[in-house]
């Protein structure tokens, strides 16, 4: 039995009759409803009405916004066509010889949707009362799962940084900026800390709602292809984009950017900063980060997956869950959601670079590769 399978068997999975009914299309979807900001049922929504927040917030982060805004939706009224668009399309930008008036070229298509609109339409569709309850249950389960399998919360990272700074000021900790000459030793310490992080990522996947209904072979596909993206998401919390410092996964040492660059695979580590510069400003709560990583796991387009329909359905549910959570905690939820979804290709890109870097290292020095990386790491990421 592989190490990954051993982790899966030793940890419980989320089980819910309502989730099973959802995947089998047995949930009652005949009475579509919406709710107001207080969780009260409303009359069936018009096409321009969207889903408001759930009754209670499961956010445990101190940075959550307490004053929950009334739900608003301006996205269905956005248009994309402009006069210049129409003129350029017709090949007559100066308008000469055009019998149409200038005003006519300004007519926009009321049904035109931007890419952001399409993303929002996916999560703003009406839901039944049973689906609403399912989303609430799923949100609570994922947030709890994340907090139990992730050390990197806002509070923990802030506490660790204060402790590290105090130890450095007292001379009780080496100056990592001067450790570039011993980069290999520092790298081995970093790699050794990956094993517990990978283990926690596997546990997180296994406890996701709906994961137990996925075929066993597809579970391995999702875990192997998504686990590094989970780690990168969690490591973003460790990066201070202003100072350039990064705390190690065990929250015990702080590395300056130049020290990371000198390590083996240092260029890959620097890719973390590019993601953090886009991801961290979104100011997601701890719970929202957990919900986002659940979306990364349940990606129906993973290579080799045979359960695409089920995975896509589960991911759609998770997207609704994070959108409703954003509505509770942020006044600019629509903007945050679209920006957040736009980061997914960036996580995919660094995932691919990580795979390529490991493959090159293994081909160049197979024995060194085998000695450098723990067996769980090799099973997870080696091709």
From TrEMBL:
Gene3D superfamilies noted in UniProt: Retinoid X Receptor (1.10.565.10)
Family matches, as CDD domains: NR_LBD_F1
This protein's GO CC annotations: nucleus
Biased composition (Polar residues): 56-85, 99-111
Example of a GO MF term: nuclear receptor activity
Domain NR LBD, first and last residues per copy: 149-380
Superkingdom of the source species: Eukaryota
Annotated localization: Nucleus
InterPro entries noted in UniProt: NHR-like_dom_sf (IPR035500), Nucl_hrmn_rcpt_lig-bd (IPR000536), Nuclear_hrmn_rcpt (IPR001723), ThyrH_rcpt (IPR001728)
Signal peptide from the UniProt entry: none
Keywords, in A-Z order: DNA-binding, Metal-binding, Receptor, Transcription, Transcription regulation, Zinc, Zinc-finger
Principal localisation: nucleus
SMART domains (alphabetical): HOLI
PROSITE patterns tied to this protein: NR_LBD (PS51843)
Family in the record: Belongs to the nuclear hormone receptor family. NR1 subfamily.
Name of the protein in its database record: NR LBD domain-containing protein
Organism: Patella caerulea (Rayed Mediterranean limpet)
Lineage: Eukaryota, Metazoa, Spiralia, Lophotrochozoa, Mollusca
């Amino acid at each position: 039995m592989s190490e990954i399978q051993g982790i899966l068997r030793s940890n419980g999975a989320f089980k819910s009759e309502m989730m099973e009914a959802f995947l089998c299309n047995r949930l009652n979807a005949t009475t579509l409803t919406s709710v107001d900001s207080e969780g009260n049922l409303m009359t069936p929504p018009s096409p321009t009405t969207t889903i408001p927040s759930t009754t209670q917030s499961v956010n445990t982060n101190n940075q959550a916004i307490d004053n929950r805004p009334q739900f608003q939706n301006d996205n269905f009224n956005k248009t994309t066509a402009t006069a210049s668009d129409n003129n350029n399309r017709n090949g007559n930008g100066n308008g000469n010889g055009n019998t149409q008036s200038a005003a006519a070229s300004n007519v926009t298509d009321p049904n035109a949707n931007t890419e952001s609109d399409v993303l929002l339409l996916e999560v703003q569709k009406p839901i039944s009362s049973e689906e609403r309850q399912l989303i609430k249950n799923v949100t609570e389960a994922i947030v709890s799962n994340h907090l139990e399998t992730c050390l990197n919360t806002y509070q923990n990272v802030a506490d660790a940084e204060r402790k590290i700074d105090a130890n450095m000021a007292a001379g009780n900790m080496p100056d990592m900026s001067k450790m570039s000459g011993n980069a290999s030793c520092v790298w081995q310490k970093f790699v050794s800390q990956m094993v517990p992080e990978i283990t926690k990522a596997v546990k997180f996947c296994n406890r996701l709602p709906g994961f137990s209904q996925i075929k066993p072979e597809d579970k391995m596909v999702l875990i192997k292809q998504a686990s590094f993206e989970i780690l990168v998401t969690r490591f973003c919390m460790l990066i201070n984009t202003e100072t350039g410092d990064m705390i190690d996964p065990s929250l015990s040492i702080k590395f300056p950017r130049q020290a990371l660059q000198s390590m083996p695979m240092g260029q890959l580590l620097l890719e973390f900063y590019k993601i953090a510069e886009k991801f961290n400003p979104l100011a997601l709560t701890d719970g929202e980060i957990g919900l986002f990583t659940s979306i990364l796991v349940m990606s129906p387009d993973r290579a080799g997956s045979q359960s695409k329909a089920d995975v896509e359905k589960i991911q759609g549910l998770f997207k609704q869950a994070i959108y409703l959570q954003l509505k509770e905690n942020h006044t600019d939820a629509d903007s945050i959601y679209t920006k957040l979804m736009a980061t997914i290709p960036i996580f995919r890109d660094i995932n691919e670079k990580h795979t390529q870097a490991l493959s090159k290292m293994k081909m160049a020095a197979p024995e060194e590769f085998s000695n450098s990386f723990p067996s769980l790491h090799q099973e997870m990421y080696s091709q």
